[in-house]
Amino acid sequence: MFKDVSFGQYYPTNSLVHRLDARVKLFLTLLFIVVIFFVKSYFGFMLTAFVLLVVVLTARLPMASVLKSVRGILFIIVFTSLLNLFFIKQGDVLVSWNIGRTMFAITKTGVHTTIKMVLRLVLLIIGASILSLTTTPVQLADGVESLMSPLKLIKIPVRDIAMIMSIALRFIPTLFEETNKIIAAQKARGASFDTGNLFARAKAMMPVLIPLFVNSFRRADELAFAMDARCYNATDKRTKMKKAKFGFGDAIALLFILSFATVIMLDRYYFGTIGIDIDYMIFGGLL
Predict the structure, then answer these.
(1) Block means of pLDDT (10 residues each) for the chain, length 287 residues?
(2) What is the maximum span of the chain, computed from C-alpha positions, in angstroms?
(3) Quick check: 180 and 3 in contact, CB under 8 A?
(4) CA pair distance 50, 68, nearest whole angstrom
(5) At 1, is the secondary structure helix, strand, or coil?
(6) Which residues touch 209 (CB under 8 Å, ≥6 apart)?
(7) Residue pair 271/38 in contact by the 8 Å Cβ criterion
C-alpha cells in the first residue's frame, strides 16, 4: 500500500546536486515553493517543468522515483480538480447538462483553472521531493540548524529542533516499511483492506494502526535510551565531522534558480503591461 512512497527517502549518487550545500538547497527549495505560486501562464508552467527536468537530470535521479512522490496526493488532485471543473462558472460554456433540476456546466475558465491547479500541485511536490532525494537527513538537520542559528540569540533551541526534524525524516521510510509488513501479516490472517465501503475499510485499518503506534513508541523509547547512553546534549559546544562550505557549484545553482524566479516575475507583472502574451505566441488561438 505504501511501497511507492518516496518522500523522505535518499537516493545516493555522486552528482552535482547531491554535493551542493544543504543550506543552499533548503533556501532554493523554499524560493521555488514561493515562486511557483506566482506562475500564471502555461509558459510559466513549461519553464518550471523544464527547470525541474534539468535538476533531475543533473542529479541523476531515476524519473520513476521522482514521480512516485506524486502518487501520495492523487486523491487531493482529483478532488480539487472536480471542484474547480464544476463550480467555476466564469467564461464560455463548453459542455452543459441537466440532472433533474440541477444544471452542470464546464466552462473554458474552469478547464484552464483546473489544468493550472494540477500542474502547480504536481510541480510543487516534485520540487520538494528532489530535496529529500538528494539530501540526507543529517545534512538537512545541519542546514536547518545553520539557517536558524540567529534564533539562538533569543534562546530558541535550534539544535534540538534540527535534531527532531532529522529524526522525523529518517523514520518516515521506516514507518512506511513497517506498515507494509503489518498489512502483509494481517492479509495472511485473512484481513481485507480493499473491499467494503469507506467505513468498513477504515475499521479494517484498526488492526494495523494499533501495532504501528505501539512499535513507534517502543522505537522512540529505544532511541531515547541510545542517545542518552551516548551522552547526547551533554555539551553545548558540539563539533561536526563535515562542515558545509559555499562553493562554485552552489553559486551556479543559486544563479540558475534566481534567473528562473526573475523570468516568472517578469511574466506575471511586466510582460502583460507592454503587450507581450507569450502563451499566445506559443499556442496561438488554441487557448
Answers:
(1) 56 88 92 93 93 93 84 82 80 72 76 89 91 85 82 81 78 80 81 71 79 86 86 66 79 94 91 80 70
(2) 72
(3) yes
(4) 19
(5) coil
(6) none
(7) no
Distances in whole angstroms, Cα of residue 141 to Cα of each of 104, 135, 173, 218: 50, 10, 17, 23
Q: 168: which 3 cell numbers?
A: 522525523
The phi and psi torsions of 97 (rounded to 5 degrees) equal: -155, 160
143-167 burial, b at 16+ Cβ within 10 Å, e below that, comes to: bbbbbeeeeeeeeeebbeebbebbe
- List the grid coordinates of 258: 534566481
Closest-CA residue to 139 (of 150, 131, 149, 130): 131
Locate all alpha helices (DSSP H) within 135-269, ordered by sequence.
137-147, 158-188, 198-204, 206-229, 248-269
